[in-house]
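Changelog entry: the Branched-chain amino acid transport record was regenerated in this release. Current contents:
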Amino acid sequence: MTYQWIIVLALGVTALTLRVVVPLAAGGRELPTWLRNALTCATPALIAGLVVTLLWPSSGAVSSVRTLTALAGVGAGVLLLAGKRSILTAMVGAAVVTALLRLVFG
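Regenerated structure tokens:
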């Protein structure tokens, strides 16, 4: 298993813990506003960390096409979020834009 997949799994577990386990542990009580806000912001921050980590491979050799297509995908995701779309829609949109650009530009 490569380090990228270890990072993906760790971020997935962290996001799941923050979004599911913490509210369940509260046992039906209302969470403080600051904690609700932190949980809401945690998932996009984890996704951004994942994107940044996967952009730079361990060899240090990053092609400009790879970087630009990934940044275009992130930009598409940000635009979808700004347009009040769900995080899932933004993630899928970012992935599709990145994949299509990599298909076209190699």
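The CA atoms of residues 73 and 98 lie 5 Å apart.
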